[in-house]
């Protein structure tokens, strides 16, 4: 377990393909490569995307016990992983193949895995939760002390943030601003965010619970004897009706009740495990319970059962250890540790209950699980550390020896500590990601991530603060902290906090309020940057591509104000030709012919960092300062999350190693999630 308060345990990777089929009379064992996962708290989901029923006749009978049909083997999954039935809107055309999605929700991320009609995995993608509070930066001595905290606290085991709502749109699953292609799992940025249900735990039903726990119906009637925890209740329309008269089911994780518009139909106390297995009691999560054909399906740690909606009587039960479950189409899926068992409602049992058979036959060999070093081995290994971290700490030699996760102290007390370890066997090849705390001495400390193969050879490094980083010109990453790393399939996500932005103070111990999610995709034997998403001042921001900002500069220089005006405020376009200084000059001096003359190039763009004083001196993250103080006309409103671009005039050379190299002109842009260009200030040195 990490000592870092902003980090979490390793994320679940993608299961690799492979299956061994058995006869229909016994469950089918699917051999899938082992998966490494984090503590997963709420339930995960599986769903069909269209009305097409691949199982055909006979139709499912939800009032009778389903029979077991197969078992998928996820033998590397963590014991506290949960599967959930959070719904996905169906919109695929009936003629398309109906994919199925298994969704596992963890402490900081959801994992979507598509399985085909033969229950073989096709792809796996991770979707980080929204609104994760990474907490405060830990003190330097704690960050460098591997023995500071070895225990996992209760808080670390709980759900962090809000699981992102996912919806099907055409040929993709859209989760927040990510679009995951149904065909191959490739991830792209969606044009707009998917609608998010503000109350995911409850369908739109006319029930309310006041502060005292009293349940109120659509006509403000109360239900005598029914009292629920107001902050934990979840409710659902129980059946196909529009919901005006009920019945409705409602629960707070301790009590389960069915009501209609007039009265309580029945109540019963829930097994204490029902809240966790079904996803009740946490309003950020859509429960896995399902009401279909007059049957309410709900789960506990001992299995899943079907209740008569009108009476609450038990109709059937599937006895099986359960960490999570999901119902979709004719299938009930129950997950426990490394097994996901399927039960088919089209093949009903005459018994009132059945007991699940894990179906693992030792005579049939599953795919061997690739071996990775243990965390203890990693913390006591000789490792090639990321290059910028080695330079910063003046580490000598090709490899550094670690003992209990820390190198021996060098000059000035410098050292390198292993903060967190993330492993994955479902990446393009087995990988280990190590978050290092790099301490050169004094009051400076920053994080680097090294990605290693099975033999702990360094494959690639993630060091956004280094001079050679692809992200170096996007923000002030110095002294940044890696809050989380996820390795899933061909994708890697690194969440980084403690980034200096406008409004922060300019001294080492000052609070740094910016965060960023760096996304990578595996290509050519390494991880290449795919997306950068900042969170600043409560808003999400992408820095526009330099090429997009260049389109504004070129249009303004050529007098194409129609094109330029679509990428700038009205104030900028109005004032571009305002005469500056001597009006008798020929041509007159204006911001257009001074800062945006033909041949001007956009050299770099980044978030506005720390500004000592309004219109004061400013140095870009590449080390080149502004000749004119930051600002200009229209700059009165700049705020955290806005973007600054340095301009290079015709024939000018910008050299970060030359102390006399300056940006004579710059632009300020409004920050936005789409990374769209919206210039609100043009400034230039006037001599």
UniProtKB/TrEMBL annotation:
* Residue ranges of the TM segments: 28-49
Locations of Basic and acidic residues compositional bias?
Answer: 130-139
Q: Where is the composition biased (Acidic residues)?
A: 140-157
Compositional bias, Polar residues, is annotated for 1-11
Q: Nucleus among the record's keywords?
A: no
Task: Give the superkingdom in one word.
Answer: Bacteria
Q: Hey, what's the signal peptide range on this chain? A: none
Q: Does the keyword Secreted apply?
A: no
Q: Which InterPro entries match?
A: Quinoprotein_ADH-like_sf
Coiled coil regions, renumbered to chain: none
Q: Which UniProt keywords apply?
A: Membrane, Transmembrane, Transmembrane helix
Entry protein name: PQQ-like domain-containing protein
